[in-house]
Amino acid sequence: MTVTAATGSTLPQLAERSWERLGQESVQIFEGRTWTAAELGARSRRFAAGLLAAGLRPGDRVVVCMANCPEVGVAYHGIWWAGGVTTPVLFLLSDAEIAHILRDSEAAFVITTPEFLPKIQNAAAGIPTVRGIIVAGEGSGALDFAELEAGDEAPQVSRVPSDLAGLLYTGGTTGRSKGVMLTHDAMSAAAWAMVHNSDEDDDLQVALLPLPLSHVYGLTVSVTAVHATTPRTGVLMRWFDPVGWLQLAERHRAQLGAVVPSMLQLVMAQPMEDYDLSSLRRIASGGAPLPAQVAADFVKRLPQVEVYEGYGCSELAGGITAGKPGRPVPVGSVGVPMPNIEMKIVRPDGTPVDPGEDGEICARGPMMMSAYWNATDETAHAIQDGWFHTGDIGHQDAEGNLFVVDRIKDLIIRDGFNVYPRDVEEAMLTHPDVALCAVVGRPDPRRGEEVVAFVQLGPGATVTTEELIEHGKARLAAVKYPRDVRIVEQIPLTSVGKLDRKTLRRKLS
Question: Which residues form the AMP-dependent synthetase/ligase domain (predicted)?
C-alpha cells in the first residue's frame, strides 16, 4: 500500500484528493447498504453547507456523540470542510460528563442520534455556547441532519495545517477529563503512521469495525482513508455485540478486525466454530492490555489468524506502538514504535533505563497534541522538554519491543514491593472458570496495601474464592498473589472497554 505525504495539508485538502482518487470504490458497508468514496464526499460537502447556514464559524467546536453510522464520518469531514473542530464524545458517558465537555470546550453544536437525544438535551441545558443540537434521524426539538445536507455543496473554508482540527477528551480514569488539542497536521500524521505501518503488499481489504467512531479510534479511522491509494471496505457495526460480530464477519468475508480485549473475550464465549471465519486473517487489539492467555486461546481456535496489539493514547492521536503485520513479536509485547514516533523509557529522575528495566513510557512525534485545552499546569506536567509523559510503566527488550506493565497510579505497593495489577490479572485468567479479572490495591495498616482481585466467572462455573486464592498462590510470588478474591456478577468497564478500577476501588471496605 502506498501513502501520501504525512503533513503539509489540511484534512479537507487531503480528503478532497482522496474522494477524487477513490471515486466509485466501495469504502463502507452499513446495515445492508454500500457507500462509495464519492458519495460520502458529496454528503460531507453538503453537510458542511448546512453547518455554515446554521451559523458555524471557523474554529467552532462541534461535539459528535452518535451511535455508529455513516453520518459519523460525514459529520467529521463536514465539520472540517466548514472550518470547524471535531470533538468526539462516547455515548456511554453520563449526562454530567457530557455537560462538562460541552461547557469546557464551549461547544457551538452537538450532533447525535435519536437514542441519545434526550441525554444530549439534558446535558446541554443551560450551556450558553450551544447554539444547536443536530440529530441524524427522528427527534423533536433538534435540527435535522438530513435537512442540513439537503442543499448544495459548500466551498471549502480556508484553514492551515497548524489550526486546531480535533479536541479529544481523555477518559478521566485518573482525574477530571481534559481536552487534548490536535491540529490538522497532528491528525494527518497519526493516520499516515497507521497506514504506513501496514504491509505495502497488503491485499486484505475488508475490515470489521465494531469500535465506537465517536472516539480517538474512530476519528483516526476517518482520517486514515485519505492517505491510502488502495481502497479498503469497512463493515460498520452500529454497536458491538458478539453474535452480530460473528454474523457480519461470516457474511462479508471479513479479513481484518479491530477490537478491545473485552470484545475478544465476549466473542470467544460464543460458539465460534458454528460460523465460517476462514477469511479472517488479522485481529488488532488496543485500548487496554490484552491478556496473553486470551490471545493464545483465540489463535488456538482460529489458527490462520494473527492477533497483534497496539498501544497509544489520545495525546498522540491514537498510536504509539503497534505490532506490524508479518513481524512476530514476543508474547505480551505491544510492538515497536510506529513510523515517525520516538519513544524513551525513563526512571523517576529522568535518566534512561536499561533494556528490560521498567520506567515511565515517554513519546514524541508530529502527531503529538499541542496542549491540554485551558489547562496550562497539566500541559507543563505532561509535556517536558518536548516529550509526552504517558503515566504508564513499561520496558523494552533489546530489539525495541515494548511491554506495557501498568499505569503508574494503579501500582500496588505491598510490604514495600511493587505489585502490578496486570501481572495478577494474567495469572488469575489462566483459571478456566475465570472470564474477567480486575485487580486493585486496598489500604492495609500492616502491609501498606493488600492485593484485591475482583473476578467475573464464566457460564456454569463453580469455583470458590478459596480455590481462586490457591490458584493465584501457585502462580505468583508470595508478595503478589491476592489474599482477597471477590466474585462479582460483572466486572465494570469504562466507556472504552477498559477495566474500571475507580469503580472497583469504591467497592472496597
Answer: 17-373
